[in-house]
Amino acid sequence: MISQNGAVRRVWTEIDLKAIRRNLSTIRSLVGPEAALLIVVKSDAYGHGMVEVSRTLVRGPGPAPAASLQSGPGEMLFGIGRPEEAARLREAGIANDLILLAPFLRNEVPDIFEHNITPSVGDAAGAELLNRAAMARGKKLAVHLKVDTGMGRSGVWHEEALDFALEFPNNFPHLHMEGVLTHFSEADSPDGDFTEAQVRSFNALTAGLAAHAIKPRFIHAANSAALLKHRATYFNMVRPGLCVYGVFPGIWRPPDLNLAPVLSWKARVTLVRDVPEGRFISYRRSFQTRGRARIATVSAGYADGYPVALSNCGRVLVRGKSAPVVGQVTMDQLLVDVTAIPDVFPEDEVVLIGKQGKEQILVEELAQRARTIPYELLCGISKHIPRFYNEL
Asked: Is 42 a catalytic residue?
């Protein structure tokens, strides 16, 4: 990758916006044309770039104008985690509804009104803060009621949710319950029993609401894992996040679902040298050559987001072939064994995530090797690494 001044980049990512649009089309075909899509773009769109991704999604998968995605069945909303994310999106011209999925702080309440955010509420104290603020402004604020059916993180407990909702108009008259949601704790688990129990609890609540003629505009529960594995979770809105970026919550990938990875992560070889037998490699002497070896230094490390957990178990691609990571990953460098790969030289491109030739390294694979989850790897790619966006 060459920068504008012609310098060779040491480490960078490439974001395929065309793949984003294809993935959106695939998700739309899966959930149907009527379901609303609450696309999760929090945490800088999982490291992909919130503004660029959101603009791409608003343009949609085809020639339809952005206005067609703003209202009516099948509309598109965006899920955020902090009010400052809304500020960035509004400054970028994103007019779609923004749903704040996380709890808010007292000092963030003015931002909710300034940036036209729809917050989620899951307790009386938070609802009262918003109610007073809306009353002071002479407004009625749309909110989504968050119900805890088993995640144990935030939201009104499902056993108390119906009573809370029935008293909502009296207790918080300046709030409008536009939506109701829950979140699954292990929808990607091979055992779907707990997810099914969460669905039953949520269904009991929505049935109770309907029995009292309370019909929120949006009912939503399905994250990426549930969207791919549990159709009973769709309701009238789904919350795709990771799958928008062509990544799956676990190593399992549905064979009949064509979602393309969006992000590639690349670096450069900075040094290649011959190492004698019996030499230790990197910190803590965790790797020792068993024979004469050819070791390449690569310009990426844990400061860039490549985890130490991949020491002696990660792999990269160079000249279209796989090369193992040897020794401990360091702050801005890692070492790979290229003994079996001829003609590796400084400035050669190294793929950390993505394709090279016929080989490919998926985020899911690296997460499994590092004993973590794909979300952490993607969000952990440092903000100082340039993102290059490709629409070709």
From this structure: yes
Strands 359-361 and 156-157: unpaired
- Residues sharing a CB contact under 8 Å with residue 167, sequence separation 6 or more, in sequence order: none
Q: What is the pLDDT of residue 252?
A: 60
Single out the catalytic residue among 18, 139, 140, 283: 283
Closest Cα to residue 272, out of 295, 291, 298, 289?
295
What distances in angstroms separate CA 100 from CA 121, 181, 222, 233, 309, one per listed residue? Answer: 9, 12, 16, 20, 32
- Domain boundaries defined on the chain: 17-245, 263-361
What stretch of H or E contains 274?
Answer: strand 263-275
Give a three-class secondary structure readout of 177-215.
EEEEEECCCCCCCCCCHHHHHHHHHHHHHHHHHHHCCCC
pLDDT recorded at residue 191: 84
Which structure tokens are listed for 39? 């696309």
Instruction: Burial-class residue 332 by CB neighbours within 10 Å (0-12, 13-18, 19+).
Output: middle
Residues of the chain with pLDDT under 50: 1-5, 62-72
DSSP 39-108: EE-HHHHHHT-HHHHHHHHHH-SSS--GGGGTSSTT-EEEEESSHHHHHHHHHTT--S-EEE-S---GGG
Residue 365 has what DSSP assignment?
A: H
User: How much is the pTM?
Assistant: 0.92
Whether 298 contacts 336, CB under 8 Å? yes
Q: Does domain 17-245 have CATH number 3.20.20.70?
A: no
Which of these, 192, 323, 141, 350, lies nearest to 264 by C-alpha position?
350
User: Is 229 among the residues known to form the active site?
Assistant: no
Catalytic residue among 18, 42, 215, 229: 42
The structural architecture, per CATH, of the domain 263-361 is Beta Barrel (2.40)
> For position 68, what pLDDT does the model report?
34
